[in-house]
Amino acid sequence: MGNKDNRTRSYGYNKRKNPHTHEFLGSTRLAELDKDPHNHRFAGVTGEAIFVPGGHVHKLGTNTDFYENRFHKISETTGLQKPVGGGRHVHFVEGETTSNDGHRHDLIFATLIENPIGE
């Protein structure tokens, strides 16, 4: 049995039988606190699972909403899966947006569970 087969089996997840993505949504942290305090909202769907030591992660990318004719891009990789019961899991994400108009926004959020109405 190849290394990939052993790794997949040890994590209790087989991408070929159970590919999945996660929805995500959130708000950035405030930026420009002294000049023009504001934040942005974002939402999207991650890419499929990527196997890494300890489990799997997902890549995600989206744009924030606009504030005074500007927006930011988000491009991050989630952390490892965190079980939440019922055979489901979420992922945590921590990072920052691209720079626009001389500032960035920090962000921290959790994805939603995968396949919320599935068995």
Structure description:
There is one protein chain. This protein has one helix at residues 3-10, and strands at 23-27, 41-45, 50-52, 55-57, 59-63, 73-77, 81-85, 88-96, 106-110. It is mainly beta. The protein has 1 helix and 9 strands; from the N terminus they run αβββββββββ. The protein is elongated, with a radius of gyration of 17 Å. The longest helix is centred in the N-terminal third of the chain and has 8 residues, at 3-10. The protein has one domain (20-110). The strands form 4 sheets. The chain has a 3-stranded antiparallel β-sheet with strand order 7-8-9, with no helix packed on it. 7% of the residues lie in helices and 38% in strands. β3 and β4 form a beta hairpin. The protein starts with a helix and ends in a 9-residue tail after the last strand.
Quick tags:
9 strands, disordered N terminus, 119 residues, mainly beta, two-stranded antiparallel ribbon, 3-stranded antiparallel sheet
Give the SSE layout:
Blueprint: H1 3-10, E1 23-27, E2 41-45, E3 50-52, E4 55-57, E5 59-63, E6 73-77, E7 81-85, E8 88-96, E9 106-110
Antiparallel strand pairs: 1-2, 3-4, 5-6, 7-8, 8-9
Rg over CA atoms, rounded to whole Å, is 17 Å
Number of domains: 1
Strand arrangement, largest sheet?
A: 7-8-9
Mean pLDDT: 87
Low-confidence stretches are: 1-17
Give the amount of beta strand, in percent: 35-45%
Can you give the helix content as a percent range? under 10%
The biggest sheet amounts to: 3 strands, antiparallel
Global morphology: elongated
The H-and-E topology, N to C, reads as: HEEEEEEEEE
Helix vs. strand class: mainly beta
Terminal-residue CA separation? 29 Å
Total E-strand runs: 9
Number of helices: 1
